Amino acid sequence: MTGFWTLFYKEFLRFWKVAFQTVAAPVLTALLYLLIFGHVLDDHVRVHGVQYTSFLIPGLVMMQVLQNAFANSSSSLIQAKITGSIVFVLLPPIPYSAFFVAYVLAAVVRGLMVGVGVLLATVWFAEITVVSPLWILVFSITGGAMFGALGMIAGIWAEKFDQLAAFQNFLIMPLTMLSGVFYSIYTLPTFWQGVSHYNPVFYMIDGFRYGFFGVSDVPPQSSLLVVAACFAVVSLLTLQLLKSGWKLRA
Fold first, then answer.
1. Burial code of 146-177, b = ≥16 C-beta within 10 A, e = fewer?
2. What is the DSSP string of 11-29?
3. Is 75 exposed, middle or buried (0-12, 13-18, 19+ CB in 10 A)?
4. Which of these, 118, 111, 167, lies nearest to 139 by C-alpha position?
5. What is residue 45's predicted lDDT score, i.e. its pLDDT?
6. In this structure, are residues 54 and 128 in contact, taking their beta carbons and an 8 Å threshold?
7. Closest to 118 (Cα-Cα) out of 62, 175, 174
8. Which range (31-35, 138-142, 152-156, 202-206) has the least confidence?
9. Per-residue pLDDT at 81 exceeds 70
10. What is the per-residue pLDDT across 159-175, written as a single tens digit (0 to 9) for each?
11. List of E strands, 14-149
């Protein structure tokens, strides 16, 4: 446990020491999204009977939770590999399971901190209700954990920063931007509604939003099952990669 907490503390300090970049900057980005989209669409669009700005805020919060959880673990691993400091993490007798949990937990903490910051910065622009805080907490933690584990896979696989950027630009960004952050999927044509149901991030956003308004495109229980299954698959893959030492000990 000493090794686990030490590794977690290292990962926490790694992003906290530059919190202006890792926490404050994503909050500002989300605020700009809200100001632009809210200003243009607030008087013209209502979703599930909810004012558009109110509908948008939970989506922006969850999007930043996911993207920053991914960024934390992926950037940490790729930096450690490129600088060679990964050897100081691999040499101590820390079980690979503790390695996994420490990185994912730090990613979740960063994601939640950014999410809380986004919520505090945007809540002044619209009326926000909270129907079920438990659903909000569950989806933010499980979603952040899944993207933290996915970030570890990306960090292990990538050998250069441009490879990591490609992973983020061609997989993470489309998954989050096309997940219903800015719209309800039932405003889409039937074909694209079906496609959206194959996007696991849709279930994270939809379940998270349910905690605020009590309405969703999919029952939150079903969304949680999908998210939990995806997290289990991603976690098993990450643990297998850590156990094999692929691209870490080579």
1. bbbbbbbbbbbbbeeeeebeebbeeebeebbe
2. HHHHHHTTHIIIIIHHHHH
3. buried
4. 111
5. 67
6. yes
7. 62
8. 31-35
9. yes
10. 999 999 999 999 999 99
11. 46-47, 50-51
